[in-house]
Amino acid sequence: MPQVVIIRPGCTDFAEQNRIQGALDIPLNPRGLQQVEEVVSQLAECPLEVLYADPSEASRRTAEAIADELGISVKLSEDLRNLDQGLWQGLQIDDVRHKYPKAYKQWQDSPETICPPEGETVPEALERVRRVLRKPLKKRKVMGIVVAEPLATIIASIVRKERLEMPEPNCQCHAAPRLEFVESSGTIAESLPEYLTPVGVSGDSAPVTEEARPHGKDSP
User: Fold this and answer.
1) pLDDT, tens digit, for every residue of 139-183?
2) Taking a C-beta distance cutoff of 8 angstroms, is the pair 151, 134 a contact?
3) Residue 136 · residue 50 · CB < 8 Å
4) What are the angstrom distances between the C-alpha of 95 and each of 18, 26, 84, 104, 219?
5) Which of 45, 90, 126, 166 has a Cα at 20 to 30 A from 81?
6) What is the pLDDT of residues 47-105, one digit of tens each?
7) Is 161 left (phi over 0), alpha (psi -120 to 50) or beta?
8) Cα–Cα distances in Å, from 64 out to 34, 71, 81, 182?
9) For residues 89, 92, 96 and 99, what is the CA-based torsion angle, rounded to 10 degrees?
10) What's the CA gap between 74 and 68, in Å, rounded?
11) 22 close to 86: Cβ distance less than 8 angstroms
12) Residue 136 pLDDT more than 90?
């Protein structure tokens, strides 16, 4: 039974400002660098075989620091990039909550049904995650995945075969714990529940509510 260590990278200025970072490539800030040092210390005795990470600077630097300490390799993949939240990226969470309350509530209650304008759905993100992790989950006994929120929570939920409960759209600084040890009873491909059937398999697309579309002078 493989064990997956989900590692959230150190935080960024966007995260401390409560801005939705999504797939934007924002560097670690001083607090983020300190968090990386803490994570490296916590993993010093962990028998990780390999680290997978998205190529964003925050995730890459976090993964490289851990790999240097443990003497293991890092495999970067674009398929592990964070959930693309489109035109919501750069907005403060309170802006989305107040300007688009129905879409925000839908994000919390049924995340698989929401797609920020020009962003991607949760099923779309899961399909690319499955592509990169399917084989490693069959071969590895202990592997680490360095990914940002909310993708970290999405992956943890699916590996555990639990109903997905989305965190705040951006909780990089406040995500607890930064390390999450997940026992997998199977591959991500086997774990994917029907309600998260990837877009394109059935030919349907996840709906986008009109409320979710920024417009006019309030657009980012």
Assistant:
1) 878 899 999 988 998 888 877 777 776 666 555 555 556 888 887
2) no
3) yes
4) 10, 20, 18, 10, 11
5) 45
6) 999 999 999 999 999 999 999 999 999 999 999 999 999 998 999 988 888 888 888 88
7) left
8) 15, 10, 16, 21
9) -120
10) 9
11) yes
12) no
Work out the angle between the directed axes of helices 151-160 and 122-139 (0-180°, nearest 10).
60
CA atoms of 162 and 165, how far apart (whole Å) = 9
Residue 213 — pLDDT band, cuts 50, 70, 90? very low
Closest CA to 120 of 220, 49, 217, 23: 23
